[in-house]
Amino acid sequence: MSPLPILHIARARGNRATRLTSIAALVLGLASQNSVAVDAQQSAQTQEDGAPVRLKADTRHERDDATIASPLAAKPAPYLPSEFERYVQRALAGEVTGDPERDFKVRRFGAELMEPGKRVGLAYESNGQIPSDYVISVGDEIQLTLWGSVDADLRLTVDRSGRITIPRIGPVLVAGLRYADLNSAVDQRVGQVFRNFKVSASLGRLRSIRIYVTGFTSRPGAYTVSSLSTLVNALMQAGGPSSAGSFRSIELRRAGKAISSFDFYELLLKGDKSADFVLQAEDVIHIGPVGNQVALVGSVNKPAIFELKAHEALDDVLKMAGGFTAVADRSRLTVEHLDARNDARISELPLPQSEKLQPRSGDLLRAFSAVDVTLPQHKQSKRVKVEGEVQRPGEFILPASSGISDAIKAAGGLTPAAYLFGTDFSRESVRIAQQDNYERALRDLETEFTRATTTQKAGSADEAAAQASRSQGSTKLIERLRAIRPTGRIVLQLSPKTISLPDLALEDGDRLMIPARPTTVGVFGSVFNGGSYLLRDDASIEDVLRLAGGPTRGADASSAFVVRANGSVISARQNSGGWLSFGAGFSSIPALPGDTVFVPEELNKTTFIQEAKEWTQILYQFGLGAAALKTIKN
Q: SS3 letters for 358-413?
């Protein structure tokens, strides 16, 4: 077609702007045709010469990386629990503290995937493998490589007319092609100009599309995502459903019609992505309101708050939670009904009879651990440890009705060296009770020391220093006493010549220690030479004390005591009327193998200097009084 008729048509319309546009289009069209013709002629000439043609891309239509649309840059929203989540948390751990590290450990199922650190952005989506049925459209980038008779490495962007323009070859219509057909289409077009070449066409940077996320989401609005994005990618980028949004009622709408109904639980529980469609421009993802919710906590693999559909029952909730743990009590669950405030709110559901029961919205279900369930003592097997002078020391599992004699039989019986009088029988339940009583006694002692310190008044600097020293000593004494732990020993009240142990019923965790017969006794405390001494036949406690040099000057002899090997205690106060008769009190008590004699230090005593000062003050005051009386008499 000649340019004259075109110009004639433009003039006939009488519009100056139209005339200028038509003229420019005509000139560009002719230039393009001439360029293609010349390039084809030059290419044919080059192929005849045998040298490959080097093609250079026209970059006028290429886009810079910065011009590509990016996802909505928004500050990640913090996790906002629903009112039901707060109710469950308070039911499990008391008041909510507001600390996200401590609170809301039991969340909605799937909510952790929507946390800011786990959302998928555009850069990640674009790096995925491109499916073969991907449809090329405006804005996609084509990476084109030619070699052989023609040499080129080009990056071409699909323009608004759906074409890419290859230098010396011309435009190629690629919009609407499947990615699998791209290579053959480009090969066919290049083959019209060149021969003896190879071509490789692939997709580089993909176009961006705009989609909308609406409904019950934390951040509704328009989002720019990759053209490869799916419904799940867009949901994660938008922050997912809000606390009032549903994970199970999500629609993908295209051109005003719902084309997919997506249930997030199908993906999370079964790995089913059949409803996760690839998005197209102007798609709408609509999140519906949350449905019925129940909480399942306790001995299950995934404690969480689950959203239920109308037909789902108790066994479906258990499957969502991954079933019971290995130590769970599978025979029952308890349910707390939120809507039964005026009645008994907690009831027990036997399993498997109640598996088809449909929970109510707001129910709190609990699974229990079988490990925490304790049988009565008369039904429990007894795990006991037997040590010392037995034939086979070790741990033994005995029947529920076993006693001490059964434990000794299980250990093979006693050896000839067994010293039954010194048997140490310890029990865990007794140790706990002893610890409680011991802590109470220490608190009382600490209170008494504090009261004595605060009520004393110092008459001088020396007295103040002495009180401070006594207070510091009391504090150290309390610290040392706190470091001591009761052993849980039960005193069996045996006689020194016993030949058998009382057949006391055993408890789980009991420990029986039967020592060998000792040959020494110990003397410790405020004595001149504390230590262990060889026991002489017919020796008394007084004789043993003499071996250690007797009590020192600072000893509280009236509080001395003897700990027998069987755990019993004999004190000097039981056997004497005071400290002046100390020797007479212990002289009649025979010493036994394994005895420990302890003579404590006197705590509430004054030094010689303090006593001297007090007597000097008394005499001084007495002297003043005598002088005054003499003056009055005269």
A: CCCCCCEEEECECCCCCCCHHHCCEEEEEEECECCCEEEEECCCCEHHHHHHHCCC
